[in-house]
Protein backbone atom coordinates (compact mmCIF):
# COMPACT_ATOMS: atom_id res chain seq x y z
CA UNK A 1 0.00 0.00 0.00
CA UNK A 2 1.38 3.40 -1.01
CA UNK A 3 0.69 6.41 1.13
CA UNK A 4 0.35 9.67 -0.72
CA UNK A 5 1.43 12.91 0.80
CA UNK A 6 -0.47 15.93 -0.37
CA UNK A 7 0.84 19.41 0.05
CA UNK A 8 -1.18 22.55 -0.18
CA UNK A 9 -0.20 26.16 -0.41
CA UNK A 10 -0.34 27.85 2.94
CA UNK A 11 -1.59 31.38 3.33
CA UNK A 12 0.96 34.12 3.78
CA UNK A 13 1.79 35.04 7.38
CA UNK A 14 0.93 38.69 6.66
CA UNK A 15 -1.81 39.95 4.37
CA UNK A 16 -0.82 43.01 2.35
CA UNK A 17 -3.52 45.49 1.39
CA UNK A 18 -3.49 46.96 -2.14
CA UNK A 19 -2.12 50.21 -0.64
CA UNK A 20 0.75 48.30 1.01
CA UNK A 21 1.52 46.52 -2.27
CA UNK A 22 1.58 49.88 -4.11
CA UNK A 23 3.95 51.30 -1.50
CA UNK A 24 6.26 48.29 -1.86
CA UNK A 25 6.26 48.91 -5.63
CA UNK A 26 7.14 52.58 -5.02
CA UNK A 27 9.95 51.60 -2.67
CA UNK A 28 11.34 49.07 -5.13
CA UNK A 29 11.19 51.64 -7.95
CA UNK A 30 13.60 53.82 -5.96
CA UNK A 31 15.53 51.03 -4.22
CA UNK A 32 19.28 51.27 -3.83
CA UNK A 33 21.41 49.12 -6.11
CA UNK A 34 21.53 45.51 -4.98
CA UNK A 35 18.17 45.55 -3.17
CA UNK A 36 16.12 42.44 -3.99
CA UNK A 37 13.06 43.35 -1.93
CA UNK A 38 11.60 44.88 1.19
CA UNK A 39 11.72 43.05 4.53
CA UNK A 40 9.50 43.26 7.61
CA UNK A 41 11.03 42.36 10.95
CA UNK A 42 10.22 42.87 14.63
CA UNK A 43 13.37 43.99 16.43
CA UNK A 44 13.36 44.39 20.21
CA UNK A 45 12.99 48.05 21.00
CA UNK A 46 10.57 50.58 22.39
CA UNK A 47 8.83 50.59 25.74
CA UNK A 48 6.63 47.56 24.96
CA UNK A 49 9.34 45.24 23.65
CA UNK A 50 8.94 44.69 19.89
CA UNK A 51 8.64 47.17 17.03
CA UNK A 52 7.81 46.88 13.35
CA UNK A 53 10.71 47.60 11.01
CA UNK A 54 10.55 47.71 7.19
CA UNK A 55 13.87 47.90 5.35
CA UNK A 56 15.47 47.05 2.04
CA UNK A 57 17.07 43.62 1.84
CA UNK A 58 19.97 42.58 -0.42
CA UNK A 59 19.88 38.81 0.04
CA UNK A 60 17.41 36.11 1.01
CA UNK A 61 17.85 34.57 4.44
CA UNK A 62 17.20 30.86 4.84
CA UNK A 63 14.07 31.01 7.02
CA UNK A 64 12.53 34.24 5.74
CA UNK A 65 9.07 34.03 4.21
CA UNK A 66 8.86 35.49 0.72
CA UNK A 67 5.70 37.00 -0.74
CA UNK A 68 5.73 37.99 -4.40
CA UNK A 69 3.86 41.24 -4.99
CA UNK A 70 3.24 42.97 -8.34
CA UNK A 71 5.90 45.56 -7.48
CA UNK A 72 8.58 43.30 -6.02
CA UNK A 73 9.46 40.77 -3.35
CA UNK A 74 8.31 41.25 0.23
CA UNK A 75 10.11 39.28 2.92
CA UNK A 76 9.14 38.52 6.50
CA UNK A 77 12.00 37.83 8.89
CA UNK A 78 11.95 34.15 9.85
CA UNK A 79 12.34 34.96 13.55
CA UNK A 80 9.41 37.41 13.38
CA UNK A 81 6.83 35.24 11.61
CA UNK A 82 5.48 33.86 14.89
CA UNK A 83 4.64 37.38 16.10
CA UNK A 84 3.01 38.36 12.80
CA UNK A 85 0.86 35.39 11.69
CA UNK A 86 -2.61 36.63 10.74
CA UNK A 87 -1.60 40.30 10.60
CA UNK A 88 -2.63 42.78 7.96
CA UNK A 89 -0.19 45.42 6.75
CA UNK A 90 -1.58 48.61 5.21
CA UNK A 91 -0.09 51.88 3.95
CA UNK A 92 -1.94 54.95 5.21
CA UNK A 93 -1.38 58.57 4.22
CA UNK A 94 -3.18 61.66 5.45
CA UNK A 95 -2.40 65.38 5.58
CA UNK A 96 0.09 64.95 8.42
CA UNK A 97 1.59 61.45 8.36
CA UNK A 98 2.32 58.49 6.13
CA UNK A 99 3.35 55.02 7.16
CA UNK A 100 2.71 51.32 7.35
CA UNK A 101 -0.06 50.39 9.77
CA UNK A 102 -0.38 46.90 11.26
CA UNK A 103 -3.46 45.09 12.49
CA UNK A 104 -1.82 42.32 14.50
CA UNK A 105 -4.08 39.84 16.33
CA UNK A 106 -1.04 38.56 18.28
CA UNK A 107 -0.30 41.90 19.94
CA UNK A 108 -1.46 41.88 23.55
CA UNK A 109 -0.62 45.52 24.14
CA UNK A 110 1.26 48.49 22.78
CA UNK A 111 2.95 51.57 24.11
CA UNK A 112 1.19 54.91 24.21
CA UNK A 113 3.00 56.26 21.18
CA UNK A 114 2.19 53.15 19.10
CA UNK A 115 5.82 52.48 18.20
CA UNK A 116 6.10 49.09 19.90
CA UNK A 117 3.96 46.13 20.98
CA UNK A 118 3.97 43.06 23.23
CA UNK A 119 2.91 39.51 22.42
Explain what you see.
- There is one protein chain.
- The protein is mainly beta and 119 residues long.
- The protein has a single domain (13-101), classed as HesB-like domain (Hypothetical Protein Aq_1857, Chain: A, Sandwich).
- The chain contains 2 helices and 10 strands; from the N terminus they run βαβββββαββββ.
- A 4-stranded mixed sheet has the order 4-2-6-5.
CATH superfamily: HesB-like domain
Q: What can be said about the biggest beta sheet? A: 4 strands, mixed
Provide the helix percentage.
10-25%
- What is the average of the pLDDT values? 85
The total strand number stands at: 10
The sequence of SSEs as H and E is EHEEEEEHEEEE
CATH classification class: Mainly Beta
- The CATH architecture can be given as Sandwich
Number of domains: 1
- Ranges where pLDDT stays below 50 over 5 or more residues in a row are none
Beta content = 35-45%
Strand arrangement across the biggest beta sheet: 4-2-6-5
What Rg, in angstroms, do the CA atoms define?
A: 16 Å
User: For the terminal residues, how far apart are their CA atoms?
Assistant: 46 Å
Q: What's the tally of helices?
A: 2
C-alpha geometry: globular
Structural class: mainly beta
What is the name of the CATH topology? Hypothetical Protein Aq_1857, Chain: A
Write the layout of secondary structure elements.
Elements: E1 14-16, H1 18-29, E2 37-41, E3 50-51, E4 53-57, E5 65-69, E6 72-76, H2 81-84, E7 87-93, E8 98-103, E9 109-110, E10 116-118
Parallel strand pairs: 1-7, 2-6
Antiparallel strand pairs: 2-4, 3-10, 5-6, 7-8, 9-10
Amino acid sequence: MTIETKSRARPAAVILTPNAERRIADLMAQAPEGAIGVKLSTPRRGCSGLAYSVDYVTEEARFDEKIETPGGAFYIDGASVLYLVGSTMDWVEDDFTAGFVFNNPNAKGSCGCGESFTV
